[in-house]
Amino acid sequence: METPERLEAMKYLLSDVVRFAQWGSSLRLRAYQVDVARAIVESVLHHRGLSFVVMFPRQSGKNELQAQIETYLLTLFSQTEAEIVKVSPTWKPQSLNAMRRLERILNHNLITRRLWHKQSGYIYRVGQARVFFLSGAPEANIVGATASTLLEVDEAQDVQPAKFDKDIGPMAASTNATRVFWGTAWTSRTLLARELRAARAAEQADGRRRVFVLTADQVAAEVPAYGAFVADQVAKLGRSHPMVRTQFYSEEIDAQGGMFPAERLALMQGSHPRQRAPRPGQVYALLLDVAGEDEAARSAAGELSNPGRDLTALTVVEVDLASLGDPLLKAPTYRVVARRQWIGVRHTRLYAELRAQAELWQPRYLVVDATGVGAGLASFLDRALPGKVLPFVFNAATKSRLGWDFLAVIETGRFKDWAPAGAGEDADREAFYRQAQACVMDVQTGPEQRMQWGVP
After folding, report:
1. How confident is the prediction for the chain on average, in pLDDT?
2. I need a labelling partner for 285 at 20 to 30 A (CA). Which of 5, 196, 238, 365 fits?
3. Please, what's the b/e burial string for 47-68 (b: 16 or more CB within 10 A of its CB; e: otherwise)?
């Protein structure tokens, strides 16, 4: 092991991590990256074994900073058998991307460009010092690695807490290595959120900074182009959209809760009237959610044995193309002008009524739920309305994406319902909002960031 005197001499020779990152390179650390780098390196050099949480907005230089710190420590400890372990939620693409970033920094720096080499496909060496890249996926077999110097968990919000506790955390146990949890905000039940709470409690106990949480506004103060990029995302998704709140403003969202809280329902309210027929010169689309037909569910008297069963719902939207010209929105606005609902109806009868609706509204498109029993109906409609039918097949991935996209449409003011005419006069509209108020969402942990949603 290096003596404290030699480490100080090496640190002086190489200057500090900030100058080292710029040595013979066009790469520069930004001011908001510097405090993070120095705090982590200081904990490593003084064997403090601190646990840091670093939450940066997307595309603000988090991964670049990681590679700079890794390069610095590899060089500083090149005469020792120091070992750094870096864990990402997946091997492909995240670990592979992290390795490419480190290679780029190693090659850019005049000191390391001829000193480093790679072994076994996942280990990088400078002298005797090594950094290991591992996958933190639930099925990854990574037991046995030891982090003598630094343990990093990248995108920690996507690593299962149980995986960390069982396989990853023990890597630093015998060495009391410094630990860094990198990532962006997500829900309060992620590994990153748990470690954030622990780091804040430790800060309060001894006054030593461990938490570095950055927002898009702070990045934009130093990088104006980034501010313009985020402004574009806010315009497209809305400031209250979960992706904007988490990915750019480091705000946690509730993992579970109502999908349409009162403030979101308020955004959905328009001032236009309900329509019984299309207006000349306007563009319309029909949106159809298909339920199964159920002839056996009726009693001899013709009543449904389960009136609360699922129903087929048709929504008619007037598509306002004017907002396509908005330099930030660049997307249509949808005004709901009519609804129809059917319950337990034969698809042969439903097909006839849908053709009648298409004749009335002359839609540009008919978007049809083509999942399961809806596939046949979608096929019949496609033959009757060639070029107009857009089938949508529900699965876990497409339903999640639909949920996120619909929230973006609402948050940017591009979904508006007709103004109610009075209590009891808009039964279809009232039924929709009863379901919306009951709709719940459950945001999943993991790289795919899937959302499950529906009415229990």
Report:
1. 89
2. 238
3. eeebbbbbbbbbebbbbbbbbb
